[in-house]
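hey can u run this one w/ adenosine-5'-triphosphate bound, need the structure tokens asap thx
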Amino acid sequence: MRISGRTATFCSVNKKMRDRSYSSSGEEEPLIRNQNKIISYGAQENCPSGGSTSINADPVILASSESQLPKGKYVLETVEHGSLNVISAKFESLDYDICENHLLLEEERTKGYKFIVKKNFARWFIFLLIGMLTALIACVIDITIEELSHIKYKSLKNYVDRCISENCLYIPYLIWVISNMIPVAIGSLLVAYVEPIAAGSGIPQVKCYLNGVKMPRVVRIKTLVVKVIGVISSVVGGLAVGKEGPMIHSGAVVAAGISQGKSSTFRRDLRIFKYFREDHEKRDFVSGGAAAGVAAAFGAPVGGVLFSLEEGASFWNQSLTWRIFFASIISTFTLNVVLSSYHGHPGDLSYAGLLNFGKFENISYDFFELPIFVIMGAIGGLLGSLFNHINYKLTVFRMRNIHARWMKVMEAVMVAAFSATLGFGMMYFLNDCKPLGQDPTSNPIQMYCGDGEYNAVAAIWFQTPEASVRSLFHDPPGSHKAVSVVVFFIFYFLLSCWTYGLSVSSGLFIPSLLTGAAWGRLVGSGMASILPSSGWVDPGKYALVGAAAQLGGVVRMTISLTVILIEATGNITFGLPLMLTLIMAKWTGDFFNEGIYDIHIQLSGVPLLPWEPPPLSYNMYASEVMSHPVVTLNTVESVRRIVHVLKSETFNGFPVVDPQGDVKMCQTFRGMILRSQLIVLLKNKIFNESAEIWNCKQPSIKMFRDEYPRYLTIQEVDVTEEEMKFTVDLRPFMNPSPYTVQHSASLPRVFRLFRALGLRHLAVVNDTNEVTGIVTRKDLARYRVWRHRGRMGLEHLAISEK
Ligand code: ATP
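ok here u go:
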């Protein structure tokens, strides 16, 4: 049934509840892919002009076919784990909208300008601390990895050298396997049993957090500790991982910790910076922390700022940009000072980041090389999408079959053993001997090479992956045999694909750069052998382009990655080739699938809001997207009903309306109150009937900040039977002027409002300001554009309970 106009009443719109998708051919086609059992909570009755309701209805099974799908009420699906077409109900949102309630106004009135100056000063100071601490953590990670790796590879070299003559090569092989397995087991045990969210690089989690999704435990100190130990273990354990990605997560945790002046893990409240205890302030600091992390990892302060801009653009403003830039600069500078001193030349300041590409002093390019770079970008996009596809399949397999923690640890340990076996096998079987003197490693191994020669394959394996990237960039032409590089590329590509997603802390940047550098160098060497007299073919230059293409094809970050690589290369003249390569890699990769981080985010079912509203959705109205009937509370509400609502519903926000006799009638919208606020009110017994008691306490905004960010559950709040009869006046505590939309607003309008302002709940009202529905992040995140091989459509995701 078609809707004739936008002023159609909610009830008539409701009849049109059919899911549609719009394919590129312009046809409407049903695209609900999941046909599982659908459960909807709440009665389906509507008031004449809208739908607020009481909440006593039982769950009812509504439909199992797509055409009968209900809209406007919480739809839960029982779905199989590991699906891209589901969002999970377990993820809550952050609230970026400031609650301008009576308590906030009161604080502003009493504290005045002095308070504003103090707050600003504190903000800059915190950003300074974030930059310094993030850099110091990066230094600890770097120095520990360097020292431990040095010990490991030096002793392995000694064993290999000895055993070649004594014919006992199985000894260094076993030592290598064990020295891989032990650190990886430690890191993996910590991740699997202590803090699973510390697995991986943490970039997807930080991205979600900046987007406005509350990721449980993502910014806790415990997570940071596990992350730091975990990443050291993974790199020392010889996995195909890097330490750079996790720095972004570490910076975010540092920022969240410092800015709040308290630690939930240690149950310590330093009673400082209380005025920053709200989602919106905390998220600003976290974006600064993430930027400082990028700056420390890659020596790229501008790249750090752009990373935060790209991932959290919805809340950007100039003063925040400055502060984030400040944190990034401080981070790069601190890291530089410490690492330069550690390496014995304190005045030099030549260690801007953890990832050191080495100096590309004479790198230049000719105009006719640009098409080659573009083709390499396309190859990177192809390889990246292949990597993402294989990793996606593997992750789904893991989600479905590897549940037990011990199994996760076993898999990680197995990969560690396999990595050593692979390295050893390549060293043993590939006879790639080069004359000593141009050896790129501090531990050159002779193996079966002649006197005065070293094994070039061993040189790649007997060092950290970062050092290998540097070798491929800077080794003189002819340092590696083509066959060794081909074999290395194939195996390392597959190995890094298997490794990403293990239950260990690990970064993906370095393995991608290394794989790309390998095939890039191959391209360079190939061209050098075809055109031996040309002076412009430098394998190192092509290794750099290949590395950028591969990384761009896997992660698909655009502007920030370009700047990060330009800053890490330290050569602005090579900016254009890098930009061309990365753009081409992204375009090619996007043709087939999404970036690896987005795939993992979708697999976790996070309700991430994309940059843009779904295309061709101006014909969809707020009344089609919203939930109804709405569970509302009266301005003056009985404690019994509040407790009942909180216990029987999972919602986190409730429109506050004028009281009326008949609950089926729509009621005038007065404001919005959060579950957390109601809990604090109940906990502190702010009841009208006990006013004389709490009046002496003067309920203030401090009461709410003290509880932030972890509130009690309603089951933990103690309310006596006597108190159940009392009432609470919600007006001083609710947000009296939240954003609302008319039910006739289009989906793109609702989306933009939500995305730009970082909202959590958006009330939908009718012409007479009565609540007819409510829209939350999940209602919008359910509409997702899919692209596949040039085709495009809109799909409507299901919400799963898990
Ligand atoms: P969040 O989880 O983002 O912090 P929330 O828990 O309040 O917010 P969601 O979990 O996003 O809400 O909501 C799940 C579904 O319930 C959505 O479809 C939403 O529209 C609906 N919903 C949210 N609040 C209410 C309410 N007060 N009355 C009725 N439906 C609601």
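The longest strand covers residues 669-674. anyway lmk if its weird
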